[in-house]
User: Fold this.
Amino acid sequence: MKSCSNTEVRRCRPLLGTFVEITATGLDEGQIGRAIEAGFDAIERVQRLMSAHDPSSELSQVNEEAFLRPVKVSHETFEVLKRGISLARESAGAFDFTIAPLLARWGLLPAHLRRSGNGDWRNVQMLAHRRVRFTKPLAIDLGGIAKGFAVDEAIERLRRCGVSSALVNAGGDLRAFGPKSFIIRLRHPIQQRLLTRTLRLRDAALATSSPCFTESRLRRCPISHLINPLDGSAVTGGISVTVRAPECWLADALTKVVLTQPILATQLLAKHTSEALVFTV
Amino acid sequence: MRPTIEWVVLPAAMVSAPCATHAVQYLSVAAAQQAMFPGATLTPADRRLTDAEHKAIETASGVRGRGRQRDLKLWRVEGGGWFIVDEVIGKHEFITYALGLNADGSVKHIEVMDYRENYGAQVRDEKWRNQFRGKSHGANLKLNDDIRNISGATLSCRHLTDGVKRLLATYEIVLKH
Assistant:
């Protein structure tokens, strides 16, 4: 049985290109320490598997070979790809993780991910025995979903280790677990030092996407890491979308749909018991 | 029934209320040492880098070191390995972190020890309501009280990654032999 200790432990590490913070309570300090360690391990594993930047990741192997032959992947990668495809279908392509070639052309991903042709999510086949195949030359970037998934994986490990409450915050994509209600502050999309709203989060996830984080890029040139997959244009301007969803991968991915297709997103949010807060400046 | 999307127009230039500092201490030096090298004896070995070393490290790592980073806060780990405390200052943040190195100079562990960020308060978001359905009212919270969990567009950890690069070059040039 769980002890009723009130000790709260917080740790922070640089992972997924950002600062990942884990807060947990409900065990003795040593046990919480080990639970948090397990949480970070889960995030590191997702990073190792699904980074498009890292040439030795499983995703890089898929990008390299899946057009030539089916590639067998881990449970985790298979799961993320499956969920990504299902969300692409539900959003009629407003969420599409095959935008890597475009990001590569803009210099936001390594050049070897450039592809010619018009392959999209419909050309990613999920086969038996966790194998993946591309039916056109394409490349996947899981930047819009894997960070949220990593947060979910960490929460799952913490839960299994027996903590009673936990919060995993991967640079703003976060998820709370347990009966405790966490106070979350939202950053102003342009004036990063200003906080705009306060909300409470219990047993749910929150993710924010905004193209206006990189100020210099915003001012000088109309590209961003957020793309409307339907027309290949960059999402730019003073807008920031925060989605609350039951799980973090979903919150993470739905922010992209809200940014590009807000009307369609309304139905999708309702379907997934999620909601969005859109800030425009 | 409330809509699933709420639109809020924020003023592009908000007047900043008095600043609040978001400061978290995750680990003390002793706690970080214990977390990285449980049970091991660590011997302080602080040293100041010479001009030549400082320059060589900058060249090797491609990362500029600031003046105060010439004073290495260093511990030698019994049985091989190093523990280094360093700080980086980025665009928005001030961070103290610890790097643990294995006996062969590879990275064993990185832990953020202190994280500090300054914030202004929102003052003109007039439609202040506690938006998300079914959540209790949070507007009466004082900014200074507890800025602990922040969501927003992702902050990059590049400054810290650069710091680690600089320390790995420091190991190669100064500590290895």
Remarks:
- The longest strand of chain B covers residues 107-119.
- Residues 121-145 of chain B have pLDDT under 50 and may be disordered.
- Helices of chain B lie at 29-36, 51-61, 158-175.
- Chain B touches chain A through 59 residues (CB under 8 Å).
